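Structure in, sequence out. Go:
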């Protein structure tokens, strides 16, 4: 029951909600965006290749992301389940995921689809700040740090992500509609999608997600 994907446009709250759901279920949150940013900051060969796409708000080529994902899913902690955030983003990635999971004797249980309006997305991304050091995410309006510009968790500097700048956000949203929306149809056809209203604060959205998953697990037992 705990092999989950969280889906939705940039700024729909995927990262924050996955952290929360992962904590409740005791399963790891795997974000390909975070893993890629780690490669970029360590200047690995893969990171250097990925950076130019990320800076433009475009998708990183499948073969680079698939490699990262297979590595992450083969970690021991993923045997308990996982919540995937930011993957799959193309139908080819969804097919690759199915291949990787079938080798492990697993399959995706549910795809949580967060619905948020475009206006809300643009607002959320322009006020999002991330810690340069540990990656913790804040929002200047809904979840501000205790001291301005400083991470509560590690004291690192808070920055606006390069790809959260308005001109890049527009490209990311277009990329989402073009490339990633078909992924949703792929899972709709398999009856795996749970549509969740992603508006409101983190606690409200988390409660909606947990309730929907709970209902499915109760339904399965009967
Ligand atoms: P995110 O943090 O999920 O918004 O991802 C940030 C950026 O990383 C995206 O705009 C893409 O450039 C890249 N990225 C993350 N996940 C993927 C993926 N599954 N496929 C291709 N590119 C990705």
């Amino acid at each position: 029951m705990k092999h989950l994907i969280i889906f939705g446009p940039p700024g729909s709250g995927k990262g924050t909600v996955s952290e929360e759901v992962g904590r409740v279920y005791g399963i790891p949150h795997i974000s390909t965006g975070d893993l890629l940013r780690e490669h970029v900051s360590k200047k690995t060969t893969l990171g250097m290749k990925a950076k130019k796409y990320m800076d433009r708000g475009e998708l990183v080529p499948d073969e680079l992301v698939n490699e990262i994902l297979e590595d992450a899913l083969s970690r021991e902690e993923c045997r308990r389940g996982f919540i995937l955030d930011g993957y799959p983003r193309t139908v080819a990635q969804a097919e690759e995921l199915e291949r990787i999971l079938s080798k492990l004797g697993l399959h995706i249980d549910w795809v949580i689809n967060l619905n948020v309006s475009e206006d809300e997305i643009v607002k959320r991304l322009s006020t999002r700040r991330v810690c340069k050091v540990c990656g913790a995410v804040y929002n200047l309006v809904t979840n501000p740090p205790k001291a301005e510009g400083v991470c509560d968790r590690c004291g690192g500097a808070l920055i606006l992500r390069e790809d959260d700048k308005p001109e890049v956000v527009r490209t990311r949203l277009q990329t989402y509609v073009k490339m990633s929306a078909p992924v949703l149809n792929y899972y709709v056809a398999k009856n795996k999608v749970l549509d969740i209203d992603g508006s409101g604060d983190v606690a409200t959205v988390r409660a909606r997600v947990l309730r929907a998953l709970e209902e499915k697990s109760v339904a399965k037992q009967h």
